From TrEMBL:
Organism lineage string: Bacteria, Pseudomonadati, Pseudomonadota, Alphaproteobacteria, Hyphomicrobiales
Keywords noted in UniProt: Pyrimidine biosynthesis, Transferase
rRNA-binding recorded as keyword: no
Protein name: Aspartate carbamoyltransferase
Gene that specifies this protein: pyrB
Complexes and interactors: Heterododecamer (2C3:3R2) of six catalytic PyrB chains organized as two trimers (C3), and six regulatory PyrI chains organized as three dimers (R2).
SUPFAM superfamilies: Aspartate/ornithine carbamoyltransferase
Length: 310
C-alpha cells in the first residue's frame, strides 16, 4: 500500500504532479454538483487524536467529493497518547477493512508506525512536531496560484518554528521546489540544527521580512510549552507579531499566509489577517483540492503508476 507520511521522501516531480492534480480538483468544489466517482465504494477513516478544524473537515469533504464512504472516529485527545493503545485502536479499525486511514497524532512518527501495521494506505495529517505534508502541499498550491511559481521566491516563515510540523514540511517542500526559505523567530522558538534544514535564520521581523514575496505566520503553540519558556502575549506581538508596520518591509505585493488556527493579536494583527494581502481563505479552499489529489493519487488504480510515497 502506498502512503503519504511526509514531504521528505517526495521528489520535486512527485510534488509538482500532486499540485497539478490538485489544480484540476479545484473545479469539482466550485461546481454545483461537487462530486466525482473516482473513489466510489472505497472506505476512508479519519482518526484524529488531536484537535482539528481545517484538516479533518477538509479530508472528510475531499473523500465525499471523490465518492468515498467517510467515517470520522471520535477519539478524545486525553486518554490515548501513544504506543500500544494507538496500535490497538488502529488494528481494530483495520479489521473493518478501510482503504485509507488519515491520522493526526501528538507523537512524531505515529503515522509511520501505523503504516507498518495496517493493511491500507495511510496519510499523515500531522504527527507531533514532525510533519504535516498536506498542509505544505496546500501552501505550495496557494503560493503557486498567487505568484505563478514557487522557484526563487523568498518565503519568510515566522514565529513558533520550534513546535511547528507545518514549518518543517514547508521548509522541505519549498527547498525541493527551489524557493529561498527564511525562518524568523527568537532563538528560544527555533529547533536545534535549523540552519542545516535549508533555511536562513533571522531573529528580527524587520530583517527577515525584507523583500519577502511570501510571509507565512505560525501559531504560537502555548499548549506545547508546558514547563519551558512561555513568552508574554503582549511582548510577543510587539516583537514577533505581524502588523501593518512590519508587513511594509516585505515586497508591496507579498502575500500573507497562516495555516490556522490563528491567534489574532498574538502572532498576527486582525487587520492583516483580513487584509488585501491575506490568502488565508484561499489556503483553506486549496486544502480540499490537495487532499482530494493526495487520496486520488494513492487510491485510484489508474494513477498507481504515478509516484507518491514518502
Ligand atoms: N492547519 C491545520 O492543520 O489546522 P487544523 O489544526 O484546524 O486542522
Amino acid at each position: 500500500h502506498r502512503h503519504l507520511l511526509g514531504i521528505k521522501g517526495l521528489s520535486p516531480q512527485d510534488i509538482v504532479q500532486l499540485l497539478d492534480l490538485a489544480e484540476s480538483e479545484i473545479a469539482v468544489s466550485r461546481q454545483s454538483e461537487k462530486k466525482k466517482a473516482t473513489l466510489r465504494g472505497r472506505t476512508q477513516i479519519n482518526l484524529f487524536f488531536e484537535a482539528s478544524t481545517r484538516t479533518q473537515s477538509s479530508f472528510e469533504l475531499a473523500g465525499k467529493r471523490l465518492g468515498a464512504d467517510v467515517m470520522n472516529m471520535s477519539v478524545g485527545n486525553s486518554s490515548v497518547k501513544k504506543g500500544e493503545t494507538l496500535i490497538d485502536t488502529a488494528m481494530t479499525l483495520n479489521a473493518m477493512r478501510p482503504d485509507i486511514l488519515i491520522i493526526r497524532h501528538g507523537s512524531a512518527g505515529a503515522a509511520a508506525l501505523l503504516a507498518q501495521k495496517v493493511g491500507c494506505s495511510v496519510v499523515n495529517a500531522g504527527d507531533g512536531a514532525h510533519e504535516h505534508p498536506t498542509q505544505a502541499l496546500l501552501d505550495a498550491l496557494t503560493i503557486r496560484r498567487a505568484k505563478g511559481k514557487v522557484e526563487r521566491l523568498t518565503v519568510a516563515i515566522c514565529g513558533d518554528v520550534l513546535h511547528s510540523r507545518v514549518a518543517r514540511s514547508n521548509i522541505i517542500l519549498l527547498n525541493a521546489l527551489g524557493a529561498r526559505v527564511r525562518v524568523v523567530a527568537p532563538s528560544t522558538l527555533l529547533p536545534a540544527g535549523i540552519s542545516h534544514m535549508g533555511a536562513e535564520v533571522f531573529h528580527k521581523m524587520e530583517d527577515g521580512l525584507k523583500d519577502a514575496d511570501v510571509v507565512m505566520m505560525l501559531r504560537l503553540q502555548r499548549e506545547r510549552m508546558a514547563g519551558s519558556f512561555v513568552p508574554s502575549v503582549r511582548e510577543y506581538f510587539r516583537y514577533h507579531g505581524l502588523d501593518r508596520e512590519k508587513l511594509k518591509y516585505a515586497k508591496p505585493d507579498a502575500i500573507v499566509m497562516h495555516p490556522g488556527p490563528m491567534n489574532r493579536g498574538v502572532e498576527i494583527a486582525s487587520d492583516v489577517a483580513d487584509g488585501v494581502q491575506s490568502v488565508i481563505q484561499e489556503q483553506v479552499e486549496m486544502g480540499v483540492a490537495v487532499r482530494m489529489a493526495v487520496m486520488e493519487a494513492l487510491l485510484d488504480p489508474r494513477r498507481n503508476a504515478e509516484g507518491v510515497a514518502g
